[in-house]
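Researcher: We're reviewing a set of sequences before deciding which ones to prioritize for further study. For each one, I'd like a predicted 3D structure that I can look through quickly. This is Molybdopterin synthase catalytic subunit. If possible, include the structure in token form so it fits the rest of the review sheet.
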Amino acid sequence: MAGPVQVSVKLFGLTKSLARNQADLVFTLNGDRKVRDLVGLIDAQYPAIGELILKKKVLVSVNQDVAHEETELNTGDEIALLPPFAGGAPPMEPNGQTVVADDEALLVRVQRENFSIDAELDRVRRRSKRIGGITVFLGTARDRSKGRDVSGITFEHYEGMAQKKLREIRERALKDFDIIELLIVHRYGPIEIGENIVLIIAGAEHRADAFRACKWAIDELKQITPIWKLEQTPEGEVWVEEHP
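Model: Here's the predicted structure for Molybdopterin synthase catalytic subunit, in token form for your review sheet.
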């Protein structure tokens, strides 16, 4: 029988709230070292979180990939619980990590500070003189959501995995659509009403291809990127599981 293994589990969004705002939980696995064994320990100590995992509303990731019940756990693994993302459904199984060259690093970013739309447009334009059509999607913070007044928003993200998913979106867009370049920038941290949140810019030879790629990219971002949205409302703080 394998010896005991101590693992640390990162918490985000709703799961952090359910664990009394702890950012990490530590568990000791005796004997079997699979994800299902870890879930059993979580369910015993934090039944509200365990119920969400069992209902597939919260996913378990191991080393920034979505894991299965039979996934083996080892000392040093990076484990996290992923509640529903701010954009929609839980992530699908990844197809592998994408490596981005250094000169492309600025085309996919998660950052706290605001961004300049003009500067990012110029960044895409400089990629190729064949670009003849550019489509821009800009997401901003609004003061009302699902019938509630909103006074402010805070975005939390899974550092590393969020960037990885955005790089996957860019690479898939370049492969599946007839475009020349795609840029994605998403902010995190506190954001005031009216401020910028996310920017996607698609550059192609023709406008129709740029429109299609831009729409697909923002829809995909909302589905698979581990970014969580906390709204400040008159009734208190609310974690947003999905929005249009």
